[in-house]
């Protein structure tokens, strides 16, 4: 690095120095942007493929892969707005079918009222209205307190909290404190309530609109 | 060109100027991530990679960087390298990325990276610079491993949770009795501050003792009638 030690023979004018410095900055910016762009292009396909695989792995947790036979991730319907799912700016819903018969709708939903911000969920609503399963995709609930909503953090590995939904009828999808049948852990009602209510809202939406959602964009 | 004492460079980063215990730089990620041993060590590994890379790169380019705009150029280089590392790991080291992935972008915000680039790499050749960066990262790993391990054991009663992501089949070890109720305070941010403070105090105590011992040795070796 050129530290200002000896004065140059002819001191540069302020204008000349500015231009030279700006050009150097520009050159560095372009070189390193090119490096990043090159890496992005070289890695894009691999990253897309593994992101898709990860999505499928997550969906396999909430919907058994044997229950459908279509290319689930390709069979999607995009909604411009879905406030029922907590996604006012648009949502994607994937449709599982076997043969041509509808099996389940897989969707993302957001619980806006977690203890520390939004909780992102993915859930599968079966065609008969029951719930295939729910998983927490992203959350910032307190470690060790509210994070049992995520089965990876849940201390109860044999019967994680999030597993309750599938066995219960939709009318019971409220935490016990609110008159439902969903258990929660002492000291962390808010996280459980946020997830429970978001699941109930999303499932109600899917049930009410499932005919439209399954048909939309499909050639007769 | 003078030769570099790599052992000295390493010791400097690992202990004498330890990021977490002496320079107290980059505390935000240290405190946020040290909730468990595996989390802490994972962040440290990612930091070692980034610091070695950014120190080496800046050192190689140091004669091209005008003094007046060195800081924006350094930040540009660090951010670009972190992005490249993030994408590369995501694509070709995906298993590792799943563990370290969330920590890699966090490293850009760690001021220890910029601090070492400015203080060391801008004035020294590439190899010593890379060693300096890596040593700083290893020093960070020491702190994060102790801090993460302590907080995890106190907070949850077990150690190495999440190790199955790094070594498939490995399992967390229950250190305290299985009915240990957990001590939430250790996991929450105040626990991090207090644990780090204890660690810094321990380092200072150890060094003060050593200094004291050296001093006594010196005094003992010098005749009593030396000038006051």
Total domains of chain A: 2
Ranges of chain B where pLDDT stays below 50 over 5 or more residues in a row are none
SSE order of chain A: HEEEEEHH
Given the C-alpha coordinates, what overall shape of chain A results?
elongated
Q: Average pLDDT value of chain B?
A: 85
Modified residues (FMN phosphoryl threonine) (chain A): 189
Subunit structure (chain A): The complex is composed of six subunits: RnfA, RnfB, RnfC, RnfD, RnfE and RnfG.
Transmembrane segments (chain A): 20-42
Subcellular location (chain A): Cell inner membrane
Give your account of this protein's structure.
The complex is a heterodimer of chains A (220) and B (228). Chain A is an alpha+beta fold and 220 residues long. Chain A has two domains: 13-62; 68-215, no CATH class. Chain A has three helices and five strands, in the order H-E-E-E-E-E-H-H. Chain A has helices at 14-62, 164-167, 189-215; strands spanning 76-79, 91-98, 101-114, 117-126, 131-138. Chain A has a five-stranded antiparallel β-sheet. In chain A, strand 2 (91-98) and strand 3 form a beta hairpin. Chain A is elongated. The termini of chain A are far apart. By secondary structure, chain B is mainly α. Chain B has one domain. In chain B, 71% of the residues lie in helices and 2% in strands. The mean pLDDT of chain B is 85.
């Amino acid at each position: 690095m050129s530290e200002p030690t000896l004065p140059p023979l002819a001191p540069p004018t302020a204008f000349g120095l500015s231009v030279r410095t700006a050009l150097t900055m520009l050159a560095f910016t372009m070189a390193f942007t090119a490096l990043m762009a090159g890496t992005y292009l070289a890695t894009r396909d691999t990253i897309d493929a593994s992101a898709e695989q990860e999505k499928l792995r997550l969906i396999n947790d909430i919907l058994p892969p044997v229950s459908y036979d279509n290319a689930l991730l390709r069979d999607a319907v995009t909604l411009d707005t879905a406030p029922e799912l907590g996604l006012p700016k648009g949502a994607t819903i994937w449709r599982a079918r076997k043969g041509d018969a509808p099996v389940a709708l897989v969707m993302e939903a957001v619980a806006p009222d977690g203890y520390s911000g939004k909780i992102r969920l993915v859930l599968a609503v079966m065609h008969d209205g029951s719930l295939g399963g729910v998983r927490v995709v992203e959350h910032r609930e307190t470690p060790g307190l509210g994070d049992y909503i995520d089965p990876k953090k849940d201390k109860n590995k044999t019967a994680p909290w999030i597993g309750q939904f599938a066995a219960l009828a939709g009318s019971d999808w409220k935490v016990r404190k609110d008159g439902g049948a969903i258990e929660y852990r002492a000291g962390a009602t808010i996280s459980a309530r946020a997830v429970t209510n978001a699941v109930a809202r999303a499932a109600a939406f899917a049930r009410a609109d499932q005919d439209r959602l399954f048909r939309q964009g499909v050639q007769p | 060109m003078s030769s570099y004492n790599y052992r000295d460079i390493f010791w400097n980063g690992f202990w004498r100027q330890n990021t977490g215990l002496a320079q107290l730089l980059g505390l935000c990620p240290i405190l946020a991530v040290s909730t468990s041993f595996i989390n802490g060590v994972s962040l440290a590994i990612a930091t070692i990679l980034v610091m070695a890379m950014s120190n080496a790169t800046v050192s190689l380019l140091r004669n091209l960087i005008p003094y007046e705009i060195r800081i924006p150029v350094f930040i540009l280089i660090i951010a670009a390298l972190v992005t490249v590392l993030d994408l590369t790991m995501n694509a070709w080291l995906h298993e590792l990325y799943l563990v370290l992935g969330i920590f890699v972008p966090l490293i850009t915000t760690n001021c220890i990276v910029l601090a070492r680039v400015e203080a060391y790499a801008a004035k020294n050749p590439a190899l010593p610079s890379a060693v300096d960066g890596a040593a700083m990262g290893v020093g960070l790993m020491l702190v994060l491993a102790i801090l993460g391990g302590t907080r995890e054991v106190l907070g949850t009663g077990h150690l190495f949770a999440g190790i199955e992501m790094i070594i498939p089949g490995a399992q967390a070890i229950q250190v305290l009795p299985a009915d240990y109720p957990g001590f939430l305070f250790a996991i929450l941010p105040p626990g991090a501050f207090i644990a780090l403070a204890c660690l810094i105090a321990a380092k200072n105590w150890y060094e003060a003792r050593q200094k004291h011992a050296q001093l006594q040795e010196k005094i003992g070796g010098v005749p009593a009638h030396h000038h006051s």
